[in-house]
Design a protein that fits this description.
There is one protein chain. The termini are far apart. With 297 residues, the chain is an alpha/beta fold. It has helices at residues 15-23, 47-56, 78-88, 101-115, 124-132, 145-148, 156-166, 175-180, 182-192, 217-229, 231-236, 242-252, 262-285, and strands at 5-9, 28-30, 66-70, 93-98, 170-174, 213-214, 253-254. The longest helix has 24 residues, at 262-285. Helix content is 47%, strand content 9%. The strands form 2 sheets. The chain has a 5-stranded parallel beta sheet with strand order 2-3-1-4-5, sandwiched between helices. The chain has a two-stranded antiparallel sheet with strand order 6-7. The protein is globular, with a radius of gyration of 19 Å.
Amino acid sequence: MNPNLFVAGVPKAGTTSLFHYLALHPDVFPSSRKEPGYFHPFKIKEMDKNLEAYKKLFVGHSGQQYVIEATPGYFYGGKESAAAINNFSPESRVIIVLRNPVERLFSFYKYKKSLGHIDGKLNFGSYVDKCKNIPDTQPIQKEIYDFWAMIGGNYAPFLSEWYNIFDNRLKVCFFDDMVKDEPKFIGEICKWLDLDKSKIDDSQTKVQNRSMIYRSQVLQRVATSFDRMLSGVWYYLPWLKWPFSGIYNLLNAKPHTEIISDSLRAELNQYYQDDMHKTRDILKERQIENLPDWLTK
């Protein structure tokens, strides 16, 4: 069976945790790897040659109502990725989680820094300066992705394109609600999917994919490779990973103490202001009224 439930965006908005939570439901069958990326704008032209490998991620499905995968980068494929998913899996449903674009950008910066994808000597201000070198009209490209993230906080154009294709099969949620009341957040998604929330064991849920700073980048790369190698085990038995993560973080992780300065926050809020107004209008047209503060100011 082809996947019929996609967590399509946005990066650094709790999509990993959401995937794990829904995968705990007995009527949901998860991909053996969380981010297959099959419909990602970086890979969409190679879909035909990657099809068999993609289908293998869902081997073992035994009649569950939903087959889920989560690749938050799909969101930035806009109408191209949305149409490809819809053609591949008609009647599928899509979940998009939005986050305050300033906080999302900061989280993305910390995440990329922890992976060693950007210079460890950069602070957030200098990172933003590098992001500014990319024109706002520049489409997403793999070569510039690490610094395209500032543009990626402009949600409205992509959101319109996803709605145009999926209409009421698209559910937009907010990271703020996940943080504020996680059981309620999951419960509302389950209601939309006609799933019984009580069948999810809340004791097995745990926030996933936190951004950390690591003392040794070499050790982090080794740990990342090990994590990917056992990804199938972690997604079926997420609680098994927790002791390993705890010990590893104790040995190699250190607190991330950097904050966003008031002046830089004000600058970024100004940069995103127009798009936030457009995003709010799109959502209100869809009768989504319970919006987070960053969309109502």
